[in-house]
């Protein structure tokens, strides 16, 4: 299927937090209970429409193992957004968020939108990280926050809707930059005409603009 624009997203976080399962829900709307560990990177795609334009969201699922971190870092380049995922039943995955966030902000575009996702909300009875802790971490670091379940699909569409909004921000930023540049090109054009005019008028007097 053809598309007008392509936006890249990356899913990051510790191994076993459910990144691949979230990707499967985003793209195929299904849950696979047994999933092999991601080796390197995998990706899926989803088509959306904004302002009657077909947009392709390309979502990259990265390996969470430390041995693949150097590979993961290369995929931050060009990403419009990132999903930073932890497992609400495993405290250590929450404790490692700062390290993942530091990586993302060091290797990605400074304007990249980052969304924090507390996955496996269907296992709330085994919760090791409170919702309030997730909210506080997101607030302190300027992230969007949501808890979700790749198994039951709880809030997965809401996460997806947030991804849909990010390209609109990119469009707005693009057009703002375009008109900003256009304004200054016109300004400098007329400044050049005015300068030449003044130099011509005052060439005998020795004045210059």
TrEMBL record:
<keyword id="KW-0547">Nucleotide-binding</keyword>
<dbReference type="Pfam" id="PF00071">
    <property type="entry name" value="Ras"/>
</dbReference>
<keyword id="KW-0472">Membrane</keyword>
<dbReference type="GO" id="GO:0005525">
    <property type="term" value="F:GTP binding"/>
</dbReference>
<dbReference type="InterPro" id="IPR005225">
    <property type="entry name" value="Small_GTP-bd"/>
</dbReference>
<dbReference type="GO" id="GO:0003924">
    <property type="term" value="F:GTPase activity"/>
</dbReference>
<dbReference type="InterPro" id="IPR027417">
    <property type="entry name" value="P-loop_NTPase"/>
</dbReference>
<dbReference type="GO" id="GO:0005886">
    <property type="term" value="C:plasma membrane"/>
</dbReference>
<keyword id="KW-0342">GTP-binding</keyword>
<comment type="similarity">
    <text>Belongs to the small GTPase superfamily. Rab family.</text>
</comment>
<protein>
    <submittedName>
        <fullName>Ras-related protein RABB1c</fullName>
    </submittedName>
</protein>
<dbReference type="InterPro" id="IPR050209">
    <property type="entry name" value="Rab_GTPases_membrane_traffic"/>
</dbReference>
<comment type="function">
    <text>Intracellular vesicle trafficking and protein transport.</text>
</comment>
<keyword id="KW-0449">Lipoprotein</keyword>
<keyword id="KW-0636">Prenylation</keyword>
<dbReference type="InterPro" id="IPR001806">
    <property type="entry name" value="Small_GTPase"/>
</dbReference>
